[in-house]
Amino acid sequence: MANCLGYADCPSGTRCYVARGYDSRCIEPLPLVIIAGETLRHSSSLLNQGSTGYPCQFNVDCGPGFACYKPAHAAIDGQCFEVKSTGQ
User: Fold this and answer.
1) Is residue 88, in this structure, part of any structural domain at all?
2) What is the pLDDT of residues 7-30, one digit of tens each?
3) Which of the 8 DSSP states describes residue 52?
4) Does 48 fall in a domain?
5) Range of the domain at 33
6) How many domains does one find in the chain?
7) In a domain, 87, yes or no
8) Residues 58 and 70 sit within 8 Å (Cβ to Cβ)
9) Residue 2 within a domain
């Protein structure tokens, strides 16, 4: 889970993901978790739904200990991934 600046910095099968306030990291993309009854992701309530793989737009959309990681240079949709401590 090394820091990265773009996809070229990541091992095969992983992508560079960024989350506001956290180091970027190479993560293996996961299928998004389907939320029952969801029709339009942007209009659904995502607040504090998520653990690994849940869709998100902001860190607050993820549960405690998780952050909203988005592919480097991506726009709106991301996925919740567990925050890893650095250097400890």
Assistant:
1) no
2) 788 999 888 988 988 888 898 877
3) T
4) yes
5) 7-82
6) 1
7) no
8) no
9) no
Compute CA distances 45 → 37, 41, 52, 54, 58, whole Å. Answer: 11, 8, 17, 12, 12
Cα 8 to Cα 11, 26, 63, 75: the distances in Å are: 8, 10, 30, 19
Q: Report the predicted TM-score, pTM, of the whole model to 2 decimal places.
A: 0.71
At 28-82, the pLDDT tens digits run 877 766 666 555 554 445 555 667 878 888 898 888 899 999 887 666 788 889 9
Task: Identify which of 41, 33, 21, 28 has the alpha carbon closest to the alpha carbon of residue 71.
Answer: 28
7, 40, 54, 48: which is closest to 26 by C-alpha? 7
Cα–Cα distance for residue pair 9/26, rounded to 1 Å = 8
Tokens 């942007």 belong to residue: 42
The partner residues of 71 in beta bridges, in order of sequence, read: 17
DSSP H helical segments within 1-88, as ranges? none
